[in-house]
Design a protein that fits this description.
Rossmann fold; seven-stranded parallel beta sheet; 14 strands; binds adenosine monophosphate
Length: 420
């Protein structure tokens, strides 16, 4: 489901797009509609799940609906967080997601001079992000105005309780209007959290995000950061290893599949291709040849590869990095099946590093970065010669060089053995 389905204001969607998020995380999918409907909410989700956006986006949307003009008088939202670092991080998130809106945020926390914080409050803010201690202090001196408050968020509520903030939180909530929306985020659902909910919330909805589904443990995953123009050469170098017995290579587009297949053929790699412009007969043949081991490499696009089941794929290569995390999980699931170990190798050129970050966020896992020893990652982009596409000339030369290198090298005995 895309972010646009939530009905968020256009400026917020623009900021999300700028952040590079392609789709909401599970906690966002579950929580955002409930918060936008005005419900109180208990969300059980850990840091790193995207929980901050789950409350910040609906909060900003609420601000955007208001037609009040001029600077705000009292704060409309209060977010309580256990630590100064978290408070600052939440404030930065609000500024990021709200960059196309005229909103003012202040962070109130101890350990620093309070004058600048008081000054910010005096000017008027829409939202306060605070740690409990300093806020109590300023409340006591009547520096904060909560008469217009509509929403309270307790972030990392369990941690705040463990840190002994219960009394402070009670005091703060006692200063807020009774009619408000209260959201509580916590890593665990304990008795203490339930008790807090009973006292501070009205018929809260519960959102609980379990462990996210991770790619099979039987797949070793790694990444090669490689410039786009060197992907062919790197693939060929990797194929020099006999460990890559049955290799499924994913590319984004059909003509990319054609080009890569031609290149591999030139390099004398046994290869077949699978994409939607090929006839059913050709597709069946390609698949059969791959299954029978007549070809070692199958180059495929995502659409065609969906649903096909091939036994014994030892390696999946993401020649083009997948745009959607789901595609990644699906692609690498083609190997490491039935408890056998498989390997997933992804090529990531600089321009796709943001896709890698998003993927790692979704699978809660940092992928191993690898570099192939002896490979020249700095090799220049070849200049075009008249009448010939640069990549063609470059690949032809590389192919010849590599084929010569391969011919000169005796094949290890395992290369000829069948699988297992
Ligand atoms: P949080 O759990 O709120 O601390 O978020 C963890 C990280 O995930 C932050 O760096 C966010 O910028 C990022 N993030 C939040 N939502 C998404 C999303 N839908 N897609 C990708 N990254 C996200």
């Amino acid at each position: 489901m895309p972010f646009s389905n939530f009905g968020l204001e256009a400026g917020i969607l623009r900021a999300i797009q700028k952040a590079g998020y392609t789709r909401p995380s599970p906690v966002q999918t579950a929580a955002i509609p409930k918060v936008m409907q005005g419900n109180d909410l208990i969300a059980i989700a850990q840091t790193g799940t995207g929980k901050t956006a789950a409350f910040v986006l609906p909060m900003l949307h609420r601000f955007s609906l208001s037609n009040r003009q001029g600077p705000p008088r009292g704060a409309r939202t209060l977010i309580l967080a256990p630590t100064r670092e978290l408070a600052v991080q939440i404030m930065e998130n609000i500024r990021d997601y709200g960059q196309y809106m005229p909103i003012r945020v202040a962070a109130i926390y101890g350990g620093v001079d309070e004058e600048s914080q008081i000054k910010a409050l005096r000017k008027g803010v829409h939202c306060i992000v605070a740690t409990p201690g300093r806020l109590i202090d300023l409340l006591g001196r009547q520096k904060v105005d909560f008469t217009e408050l509509e929403m309270l968020v307790l972030d990392e509520a369990d941690r705040m309780l463990h840190m002994g903030f219960l009394h402070d939180i009670e005091k703060i909530v006692g200063n807020l209007p009774q009619r408000r929306q209260t959201l509580m985020f916590s890593a665990t659902l304990s008795k203490e959290i339930e008790s807090l909910a009973r006292r501070f919330q009205f018929q809260p909805k519960l959102v609980q995000i379990g462990k996210r589904s991770n790619p099979a443990d039987t797949v070793n995953q790694c990444v090669y950061e490689v410039p786009g123009h060197l992907k062919n050469a790197l693939l060929l170098e990797l194929l020099a290893s006999p460990k890559l017995q049955r290799v499924l290579v994913f590319v984004r587009l059909k003509d990319g599949a054609d080009r890569l297949t031609n290149f591999l053929k030139l390099a004398q790699v046994k290869v077949a291709k699978l994409h939607s412009s090929r006839s059913q007969e050709q597709r069946n043949q390609a698949l059969q040849d791959f299954k029978d081991g007549k070809v070692r490499v199958l180059v495929a696009t995502d659409i065609v590869a969906r649903g096909i089941d091939i036994e014994g794929v030892t390696h999946v290569v993401n020649y083009d990095f997948p745009v959607n995390p789901e595609d990644y999980v699906h692609r690498i699931g083609r190997t490491g099946r039935a408890e056998t170990q498989g390997e997933a190798i992804s090529f990531v050129p600089k321009q796709d590093l943001n896709l890698l970050n998003i993927l790692e966020f979704f699978i809660s896992q940092r992928l191993d970065r690898r570099r192939l020893r002896g490979f020249d990652y700095q090799a220049p982009i070849p200049a075009a010669t008249p009448g010939e596409k640069p990549e063609k000339r470059d690949w032809r030369k590389r192919t010849r060089d590599l084929a010569a290198k391969k011919a000169a090298k005796p094949q290890p005995p395992t290369a000829r053995r069948g699988r297992k």
